[in-house]
Amino acid sequence: MFFLLHGLGVLRVRIPKKFFEKTVLIEGGEEKNRKTPTHHLWDLLSSPSNPSSEPPLAPFHLRYAAYLYYRSRGWIVRPSLTLGGVDFLLYAESPCLRHAAYVVIVMSASNTRSARDIAAHLRVTSSVAKRLIIAEIAAPTVEKGEGRPWEKVKNYTIEETLLSRTTDLV
After folding, report:
1. Checking DSSP bridges between strand 24-25 and strand 31-32, what pairing results, if any?
2. Cβ(103)–Cβ(70) under 8 Å?
3. Please, are residues 120 and 75 in contact by the beta-carbon 8 Å criterion?
4. How much helix, strand and coil, in percent to the nearest 5, is found in the chain?
């Protein structure tokens, strides 16, 4: 949704005022902390109490960085609603023409997952004839100024690990 709004400009989103932060007035009647609707949507999607979904495995900014990364490499990126616990499905062609080849788990480079957790994901993905990509995302250690958070994700570092249970017989 955020990519359609900000990246492509083809979506218009109305956010009820109850979700906006209260504006603080300073001397002279000027507004402080005035945010654009795009900023409000980013904050809403990034909040841990996101009312639109279950708590994500990875924070929104990491998932958005992974989304931009795979889109920039020509993949069609879709949310993985059918395979629980993974973030994205990657399609080489339109989903109506070909099945997804990969599933992606997004995680922070500073966090780790247990071998049991990864093995469980690998078992599920191999049972549906897909390969598992673990995308470890690291934010820059030094951030430059305030800036727009959706612009900062372009500077994140992404390291991929491809896992598969299939064995090729030669």
Report:
1. antiparallel
2. no
3. no
4. 30, 20, 50
Q: Is 125 exposed, middle or buried (0-12, 13-18, 19+ CB in 10 A)?
A: buried
pTM, whole model, 2 decimals?
0.71
**What is the sign of the dihedral through the CA atoms of 115, 90, 57 and 142?**
positive
In this predicted structure, what is the pLDDT of residue 164? 83
Output the pLDDT for position 61: 86
pLDDT digits 0-9 by tens, 3-40: 666 665 656 666 666 666 554 445 455 555 566 667 66
For the chain, where are the E strands, in sequence order? 24-25, 31-32, 76-79, 88-91, 102-108, 131-138, 157-163
The CA distance from 90 to 95, in Å, is 9
The side-by-side arrangement of strands in the sheet containing 88-91 is 76-79, 88-91, 102-108, 131-138, 157-163
Tell whether 30 and 96 lie within a shared domain: no
Report the pLDDT value the prediction gives residue 95, as an integer from 0 to 100. Answer: 85
The domain of 51 spans 1-55
Q: Is 88 left (phi over 0), alpha (psi -120 to 50) or beta?
A: beta
Are both 35 and 60 inside the same structural domain? no
**Structural contact between residues 88 and 103, judged by C-beta atoms closer than 8 angstroms:** yes
**Shared domain check, 138 and 72:** yes
Q: Is the pLDDT of residue 43 over 90?
A: no
